[in-house]
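Lab notebook, bench 4. We co-purified these components, and the gel suggests they stay together. Before we commit to crystallization screens, I want a quick structural picture of the whole thing.
Request: model the full complex, all chains together.
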Amino acid sequence: MRKTDYLLLAVICLVALAGYLFFHSADTRTAKLLIIQHDNKVIERIDLGKVTAETRMEVPVQDGTLTLMYDKKGAWVESSPCPEKLCIHQGKITRTGQTIACLPEKVLLTITTPGKEAEFDAVIR
Amino acid sequence: MKKLVLLVITISSLLITGCFFQQKTYSYKDTRFLMDTIVEITVYGDDEAKLSGASDSGFTAFKGIADVTDNYESRQEKDLFALNLQAGKGPFVVDKKLFTLLSATKKLPYEKIDLTLGPVISLWHEHSKNTTVPTKAEVAAALVKCGHNSYTLDKSTGSVTLPAGTAMDLGAVAKGYAVDRAYDALKKDPAVKSALINAGGNIKILGKKQDGKPWRIGIQDPRHTDKMIGTLEIAPGMSLATSGDYQRFYEVDGVRYHHIIDPDTGYPARNAISTTAVHASAFLADYYSTLLFILPTKEAEAVVEKTEGLEAIIINPHGKIYVSPGLKNIFKAEQ
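Here is the predicted assembly.
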């Protein structure tokens, strides 16, 4: 085997490895996205990995204002004009697949991942 | 040597081009508010254009059940709301879907699931609005109107007879039953290769996951929402349902009053804080998750052991976790 054969072999292996990593990296990203929906429409997509401070967000809803909070780890509902406050009881969500819903005010918070490889396909509680 | 180089080139080329030309699978997820909860249907298939329609067919089937099982609002003729208004007035012909659901539940033996508990549930619901607790006399007065076998079904006419004062509440079974019907609709659709239906924790899985890995369902810690107690790796065709005391509740003087009522006492059940049932039928998973929540722990464990096809996770008020033997290989506890 000549020196150039070894060189060619090394180049081919490198190209194959680069191709593999390129196509699989898109599937294995684990960054967390917070999706905020109101009345079945997405009103905000937040890359939690880029959040540097605890942030307050106010969502105008039919009975007033729903206040939600998020930081780099997750999100929670701080206050809501809904009667039973079930959305507040749901606490803080931090894991992909988790959701918080305020049914009376039609607000839905979901943590998901931009890639296909989510931590969970669903979360039950 | 040249042969070796050629072989390596060929294999590498196939690997790289395989990445380009592999069959792409698309997914489509739709979320709707139905049955007082969030319903999510995620469908996977090769033809992206057909997935939205497939998801719609699942929602149509789900809504078909939602529309006949709402006891708070009239949605159509012959629904549960209409039936409750007819209590004490003789047989009432109900929608076929509702009759089928009631017939399926009537066959189940456990008196701790009482579909006629409507008067007690309504009493607690009204008090929850003012954050008050009903008096013992109020609870007792509501409870005497209920009774596991107090309603009768007539298969020949499709009618239901409810005693005066009784009202049915199908909270223990309706969501699971609706999930099964959505599953049936998706299964018939050739565009759907796999799907996940999640109606507020009532879950059913259709087909294999696209990457060949098991479907992973996280079980949330009932007292710490940012933590999981573990993960269940679920096979296609299986269903899960969870009942808990930690979402629909209110507190008075530090005591938590949640929505799952023990039909023997008329008060919220206190034997568990979370129960998850796994079964091929979403209807039965829903039924058993509620039953196991109400029963004392030992009785609940005995029910799981003697019921074919049923597996469960039960968390008692002290945080002790029971995992039934059939789940031990697919339940991964959170480290």
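Chain A has two domains: 1-29, 33-112. Worth comparing against the SEC data before the next meeting. Confidence is low (pLDDT under 50) at residues 25-29 of chain A.
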